[in-house]
Amino acid sequence: MPVRLFLFCLLLGAALPALADGWRVVGDEQFAPYSFQYGEDRQPRGLDVEVVQAVLREAGIDYQLRLYPWARVKQMLALGDAEMAFQFAGTPERRAQYELAGPLRSGATVFMTLRKFPLADWQRLDDLAPYSVGQVSGYSYEAAFDSFAFRRDSSAQNPRQLVAMLLAGRIDVIVGDRLQLMHFVREQRAEQQVRILPRPLVEMPRYVAFAKGDSARAQRFASALQRLQRAGKLDAIYRRWGL
Question: Signal as a keyword (predicted)?
């Protein structure tokens, strides 16, 4: 065998395990400030993107990270077109569907109305029953809320659209992550038009997800995440994004 061909075969053989071990990681492209694409380079940015990248580096995992619409994220994980996806609510439904690792963080899921709207707060979900409640299609929020018989509007395809629908007066109340909803409200310079109800729906932990049964990858990610969290090495990322 010629020397050049022999060296090429050696290099190819060394490269194959690394490629086979690489993870295809996908996240929501419309979940600012946690994950989004900005500018001409369309590079993934956001709080959760930075945390996930830090954990994957800590675990020594080769990866390719891309952001897509949420429905496609879930589809890619279900079809085996991705090894890992983020960011999933820690609900019983999601735990039944996936191997969850984390949480990466927790966020308050809240209700938002227009400031002129008469609803001051809520104590039971029944208090919201008279109103149209908007949510993003395909999102899971909290078990009791997800199954409650609201006049529910799930036509919004992403949180930015959901905020726009509220500001346009098309729905009475919207539900979502506090930091995220306010991000899109500020984008519209509409802080004075909205009000967050004092009582949150839930403090919801957010996880990364693997296919059901893929416990080895889930544990590898979880161990690296725990090491970074215990050492306080993710705190600077959380602070920079206002969490």
Answer: yes
What confidence tens digit (pLDDT) does each residue in 127-183 have? 999 999 999 998 888 889 999 998 999 999 989 999 999 999 999 999 999 999 999
Residue by residue, what is the 3-state secondary structure of 138-153? Answer: CCCCCHHHHHCCCEEE
Record the tokens describing residue 101, joined without a space. 């690792």
The three-class DSSP label of residue 121 is coil
Buried/exposed 51-62: b ≥16 CB within 10 Å, e otherwise: bbebbbebbebe
- Tokens 């940015």, residue located: 45
What are the φ/ψ torsions at residue 145 (nearest 5 degrees)? -65, -45
Asked whether the beta carbons of 36 and 46 are under 8 A apart, the reply is yes
> Which residue's entry shows tokens 């960011």?
87
Token pair, residue 107, equals 């966020």
| Tens of pLDDT, residues 183-221 | 999 999 999 999 999 999 999 889 999 999 999 999 999
To which residue do tokens 């190819």 refer? 12
What the block records as the tokens of 120 is 């001051």
Q: How many separate helices (H) and strands (E) can be counted in the chain? A: 9, 12
The dihedrals phi and psi of 134, each to the nearest 5 degrees, come to: -100, 140
Question: Which pair of structure tokens corresponds to residue 230?
Answer: 């215990």
Are the beta carbons of 74 and 89 closer than 8 angstroms?
no
Question: Is residue 69 classed as helix, strand or coil in its secondary structure?
Answer: coil
Q: How many CA atoms lie within 13 A of 21 on its CB side?
A: 12
Q: How far is CA 64 from CA 21, 27, 82, in A?
A: 11, 11, 10
**Using an 8 Å Cβ cutoff, are 138 and 242 in contact?**
no
